[in-house]
Amino acid sequence: MKTVHGEKAFPNEATLKRIREKLSDPSYRGGNLALPKNATEVDRAKYQLCQLIARYQRERGLLQKDIARRIGVDESRISDILRGKIESFTLDRLIGYAEKLHPGLRLQVIAA
Fold first, then answer.
1. Is residue 91 in a domain?
2. Between these two residues, 20 and 46, which has the higher pLDDT value?
3. What is the mean pLDDT of residues 17-38?
4. Within a domain: residue 27?
């Protein structure tokens, strides 16, 4: 990425278009996974817990290995969590991981 006066410049329109096309490709396997529109409530809860763990990492500027050490799992599992690969985890396992980062974590269930 080019810099302007020592600061990173925003990508040009051609670069943004190329990135959008790549991310829109149904066969693309990189990046974070989105939750499907027809996701179950269990999947939604698992996804929210993954997002909570990812936010913890971002806000503290931690590396995957730091999170892995705090939770007690290997880095590949943290990579799956940070990318939102919820099918690899049970809800209770993700709750346990989140509790290690957020002691006193409380979950709330709301009837719609």
1. yes
2. 46
3. 69
4. no
